[in-house]
Automatic annotation (TrEMBL), chain A:
InterPro entries per record: CbtB_put (IPR012667)
Full protein name: Cobalt transporter subunit CbtB
Pfam families in alphabetical order: CbtB (PF09489)
Transmembrane segments: 17-37
UniProtKB/TrEMBL annotation, chain B:
Taxonomy of the source species: Bacteria, Bacillati, Actinomycetota, Actinomycetes, Propionibacteriales
Keyword Transmembrane helix belongs to the record: yes
Name of this chain's protein: Cobalt transporter CbtA
InterPro entries: CbtA_put (IPR012666)
Segments crossing the lipid bilayer: 7-29, 69-92, 104-123, 143-163, 175-193, 213-233
Keywords from the UniProt entry: Membrane, Transmembrane, Transmembrane helix
A Pfam family annotated for this UniProt entry: CbtA
Protein source organism: Kribbella pratensis
Amino acid sequence: MAVPAQSVAVPALSSKLLAAALLSVGVMLLLAYLVGFDQGAVSRSGMYLHELMHDGRHLLGVPCH
Amino acid sequence: MRTFGSLLVRGLVVGLFAGLLAGTFAYAVGESRVDAAIAIEESGGHAHTHAHEEDHHEDPLVSRDGQRAGLFLATSLYGVALGGLFAVAFTLLRRKLRTGNDAYAALGLAAAGFVGIVLVPFLKYPPNPPAVGDPDTITRRTVTYLLTLVIGLLAVWAGVALSRWAARYGEVARLAGGVAGLVVTVVAAYLILPRINEVPETFPATLLWQFRFASLGTQATLWLLLGFGYAVAVDRRPIRSKVAAA
């Protein structure tokens, strides 16, 4: 039943690839945190960025005040 | 074959594009609902006032116009982040997806992401407009929201695993297994997770749901464009081979 997995576009798994993937995930999660949850601790802008992105946070479904 | 860098950059670019258009949807459909909710908030439609809201009212750090523009910043950055995560997921999971077609693989991943990250959290904890929500419970609501997101992804995984196992009993069993794995995980989690309802009694139900569907639409726009955009981006042959083929 199982169709042999064909890979067309991705590089082979290697420790180098995993390290790059892990680093990317970290950076992306930090960025998502900045939009969704940060209140100045990461952005170092006080509440400015938090307030600026207020409507986006609500409409992206993140819980807010 | 594409390098990881090439796959990642495609995800970031597609994510930016999807985020901008999701922002446009949110601006067109959602902003008037946010405004209406803020009007209720400011008319004292509900009792509690607190520091965060007072920031809004008396000495706004960012004007309403600023927040309307900031909407695009938020959806774009969020789109870039999701696009990057999507690219990593595509790179690591591509071999596990049983299709020889990269575009179908991208669409399948986007559908899975939408169900796990958007739909499952939405059905348990539907998003709320301004004027709804007790600031004292924000930590609890944030944690439960993130939990539903993780559970959503686990439920999708359970569905896929069960459908692959059930496939030996035929096509209908494969589909039924997928649905069962997903639904049973989600329902069990919904029963265990706490019920949270902070909508004031007097808050208009129509406005509440208009806002919620605007939020769902914003996220659906983001994931649709992410899926189709990445399908196109990853499918594109390098320009050189096109020239060679011509």
